[in-house]
Amino acid sequence: MGTVIRDITGNELRLFGDIVARLERLEPEADARAEIFMDVVRLLRGDFAASYVWDSGANRFDEGLRFNMDPGNLRRYEDWYQFRDPITFQLRSRQRATLVDEVIPREKLKRTEFYNDFLARDGLNHGINIFIFDRQRDLGDLRIWRARGRAEFGERDTGLLDALEPYLRRALQRGAPSTGLTSREYEVAVLVSRGCTDRDIARLLGIGFGTVRTHLTHAMAKHGCANRAELAAIIARKH
């Protein structure tokens, strides 16, 4: 793993090896984040977790995954608090596993609206994040938290995440579209190229009709398309 990681049980060591093995054999169309999300939470002994991909076109985090967090509270994050977030962009700039306490003192965080009206609602207290990049391209992140009264994250946890990073990055690179679109924009565009309506796409991907239209608009803009037929033709050729 490059560094000595202490306080790891035999079962956790086997879990680490299983995560690595699955990432290495994942097919390009698989969602690497979703594939290993819950097992990474177990490995880090987390109580809560979320994962997003930064959408540079929309200037927001999207494609969320969650564990043990209220869906309504996460919608508030996606709609409001991610734009008033004092920690995430500092963590993202590190491009390595980082404790929340490394970028903001705990007492200062607890005085923020972000903590009191978002994090504390679900009981999130001790946090660790890692953001995965392919050069300057965002591939996704993992945000793992423990509850008040639990031990804080430490070197064991940053070491495990940093050791997993190259395997997760390779798996995400294999699945990242080469079209300049985010993975969700690409999924929408591929379904458009197959003749699906926006309502079909919403049902197939389990997202809202308006979200489909947003992804479709971004995909057309990135390819300079005037309509969905032009986008469908471009994606069909590349696909």
If you had to describe this structure to a student in words, what would you say it looks like?
By secondary structure, the chain is of the alpha+beta class. The protein folds into two domains: 10-175, Beta-Lactamase; 183-238, Orthogonal Bundle (Arc Repressor Mutant, subunit A), CATH 1.10.10. The protein is built from eleven helices and five strands. It has a five-stranded antiparallel β-sheet, with helices on both faces. A hairpin with a 2-residue loop joins strand 4 and strand 5 (137-147). Helix 2 packs antiparallel against helix 7 (155-175), helix 8 (183-193) crosses helix 10 (209-223) and helix 10 (209-223) crosses helix 11 (228-238).
